[in-house]
TrEMBL record:
Residues 280-463 form the Bacterial sugar transferase domain. Belongs to the bacterial sugar transferase family. It is found in: Membrane. It holds the Pfam family Bac_transf. This is TIGR03013 family PEP-CTERM/XrtA system glycosyltransferase. The chain crosses the membrane at residues 12-31, 51-72, 84-106, 112-135, 285-306. It is a multi-pass membrane protein. Keywords: Membrane, Transferase, Transmembrane, Transmembrane helix. InterPro entries: Bact_transf, EPS_sugar_tfrase, Sugar_tfrase_EpsB_2. It comes from the Bacteria.
Length: 468
């Protein structure tokens, strides 16, 4: 895995994106060359320099569209993976075509010309299809697998090994085995234990089994860890990772039920510097102003539709908990019946909630109901990206049962967030725990890069109406 601005990115996906970027750039030049060869024109150095900027615009538009369609969220365990990307490729290129048309309209100097543009898209589609087929075939090869060994054989080691063994993961692992520690319940198959003879060390076992990484998955570390042996492994090029970091890397969550507080205190991340705060506020204002300008007509239609459906109020205002535990009122288009909480007791929102109106159901699926929260962003009560704000009634309950729940209040809540694009509606404390683990990952690793990824994933949720 690569780490870009504290966020873990699969090497496989990164390589795929880089290769497809080259394919798209090459397709732009190939299309122009074919067109000019046919016309007998000779391209000057000035034309080539101008065309490079146009090729960058083309490649960026298509990569963005493919990302929004989920083409870089691969699942190698799905038998239809070879065919599913072909079904996503056409709408991705259609979206890319409209984006590029808008770009060329706003910056006509970048335009290829209509005949060249169609030729470039045709070549690019063929190139991406071939590149994907080759990539999906080579991704099955064993040399892409990384051999790992687990120090521990208890519940934590089993959970980590189950995670590593999932065939659908971006990062392929070959588990060499487990080294059991004393005073730990055995939860992994005894046949998978690695027997250490007298004189053997962790380093010798790692070299014997070709291990590239050792995952320290022992819950009770007070009984003593072989620190010197682990250091020897690290000095000899064998990567040593603790279970919390392994879980964070592989799931983009922070596991809280067995988390050591020292890992949060002494680990990296949690950037609250002036530079990060300034960049995030600037990002919030630019995004909010842009989306408000683009969606204002849609917001007017939504307001009319809400009013016409049942004659009730258009907007719904509700108290939520924000940064540092301070409360504020969040604004939304009303998506439920006006008497949704007539009993007076707050209720969890759930997917397929019977209280949701027909117009409200559509708005929730497409996130239109969230748009009035742009006002909260302008007021500085929310960010565009961040943990979703929860109601005080539920916060009081969740703080009691969910460890580290208050950590999510160290930054401003957001209209969309990491948990929203990775997890569905929550209707229980267990759902809140799962979403918190995503929120903690965002709080720890938040950056402009991660904010951009979340916005792209939000667009995918809206396009596919997955209602998260």
């Amino acid at each position: 895995m690569l780490r870009i601005s504290n966020h873990y990115v699969s090497k496989i996906v990164f390589v795929l994106l880089f290769v497809e970027l080259l394919v798209l750039m090459g397709s732009a030049y190939a299309g122009a060359a074919v067109r000019h060869i046919g016309s007998g024109e000779v391209l000057s150095a000035e034309h080539l320099h101008h065309f490079f900027t146009s090729a960058i615009a083309f490649a960026t538009a298509v990569i963005f569209s493919m990302s929004a369609m989920g083409m870089y969220q691969l699942n190698f365990g799905e038998g239809t993976s070879r065919n599913s990307f072909l079904m996503q490729l056409m709408p991705s290129f259609v979206m890319g075509f409209f984006i590029l048309t808008l770009v060329f309209y706003l910056a006509p100097d970048l335009s290829f010309g209509r005949s060249i543009l169609l030729l470039v898209f045709a070549i690019a589609a063929a190139g991406i299809a071939v590149a994907r087929m080759i990539f999906l075939k080579t991704s099955e090869l064993r040399f892409l697998q990384q051999r790992i060994m687990f120090l521990g054989g208890g519940p934590l080691a089993k959970e980590c090994s189950d995670l590593a063994g999932q065939s659908s993961r971006y990062h392929r692992y070959k588990i060499a085995g487990f080294i059991q520690t004393e005073s730990e319940e055995l939860c992994v198959p005894a046949s998978n234990l690695l027997k250490m003879k007298d004189g053997d060390s962790l380093l010798s076992m790692a070299k014997k089994h070709g291990v590239e990484e050792i995952v320290v998955s022992v819950e009770n570390r007070r009984s003593g860890l072989p620190i010197k042996e682990l250091l020897d492994c690290k000095l000899q090029g064998v990567k040593v990772t603790d279970a919390a970091t392994f879980f964070e890397r592989e799931t983009c969550q922070i596991r809280v039920d067995s988390l050591q507080p020292s890992w949060l205190v002494f680990g990296g991340g949690f950037d609250q510097s002036f530079v990060r705060t300034f960049m995030k506020r600037s990002f919030d204002l630019v995004c909010s102003a842009t989306i408000l300008a683009l969606t204002f007509p849609l917001m007017l239609l939504a307001a009319i539709a809400v009013k016409l459906e049942d004659g009730g109020p258009v907007f719904y205002s509700q108290e939520r908990v924000g940064k540092d535990g301070k409360t504020f009122r969040v604004h939304k288009f009303r998506s439920m019946r006006a008497d949704a909480e007539k009993g007076g007791k707050p209720q969890w929102a759930a997917q397929n909630d019977p209280r949701v109106t027909r117009v409200g159901n559509f708005m929730r699926k497409t996130r239109i109901d969230e748009l009035p929260q742009i006002v909260n962003v302008f007021k500085g009560e929310m960010s565009f990206v961040g943990p979703r704000p929860e109601r005080p009634y539920f916060v009081e309950q969740l703080i009691e049962v969910v460890p580290y729940y208050n950590v999510r209040h160290s930054i401003k809540p957001g209209i969309t967030g990491w948990a929203q694009v990775r997890y569905g509606y929550g209707s229980s404390a267990e759902d809140a725990l799962q979403k918190l683990q995503y929120d903690l990952y965002y709080v720890k690793n938040n950056s402009l890069f991660l904010d951009m990824l979340i916005l792209i994933d939000t667009l995918k949720v809206v396009l596919f109406r997955s209602g998260r």
